Amino acid sequence: EPEVTQTPSHQVTQMGQEVILRCVPISNHLYFYWYRQILGQKVEFLVSFYNNEISEKSEIFDDQFSVERPDGSNFTLKIRSTKLEDSAMYFCASSELGPRQFGAGYTFGSGTRLTVV
Amino acid sequence: TQLLEQSPQFLSIQEGENLTVYCNSSSVFSSLQWYRQEPGEGPVLLVTVVTGGEVKKLKRLTFQFGDARKDSSLHITAAQPGDTGLYLCAATKYNTDKLIFGTGTRLQVFP
Fold first, then answer.
1. HSE of B34 in the Cβ direction (CA atoms, 13 Å)?
2. Which residues of A touch B (CB under 8 A)?
3. Which residues of A touch B35 (CB under 8 A)?
4. Residue A94 carries which DSSP code?
5. How far apart are CA A71 and CA B31, in angstroms?
6. Tens of pLDDT along B10-55?
7. Do A110 and B42 touch (CB under 8 A)?
8. Residues A59-89, buried b or exposed e (16+ Cβ, 10 A)?
9. Whole-angstrom distance, CA of residue A39 vs CA of residue A26
10. Interval A59-82: pLDDT, tens
């Protein structure tokens, strides 16, 4: 079964450092997303990406965050200057249909656990 | 703030029992999805429902979307220890990309 692959599985970084979280979405999917889950809390939407541009972002996704699809397979999330409160599980997801199209199903990766110390 | 409330929050039952998990909101949604999440893993899609009143079955799991498209239920018949996990409902609205996740129901099935 096709899957979304995320690396690394765990990243520890010092406050103020830049991190890049990497994702390889399912190859025929066109819509890509990042979500995060702070320990014990709900899964929260960060950003959606389609046709090489951000289609929507949440209020969490401020200027410290950016996304990129540098080649035909990778989809990255960069946090420029990490804060303690950025510690969370970050999930990449992809879908064949767009989120506003009925019946779109999302495939999530296993996540990257980011710990900011 | 759009909120999807799930109940119960925790559920511990014996193998063979039936259970129902509810997902409620005051908002109308274009579609609703159910996911199951294991510790340290991402959510895994179980089903998507798009039509008010729609019922979908997946083996021992029955999913229903409310007529008004504001709520949903997940019913498990004859629960097995392998059903143990965190069940999440998540919904989409017509004018946004974001998938709004519910508060989650943690199910434990004892043999």
1. 27
2. 4, 33, 35, 42-45, 48, 55-56, 58, 91, 93, 98-100, 102-111, 113
3. 108
4. E
5. 32
6. 999 999 999 999 999 999 998 899 999 998 889 999 999 989 999 9
7. yes
8. ebbeeebebebeeeeebebebeebeeebbbb
9. 27
10. 999 999 999 998 878 999 999 999
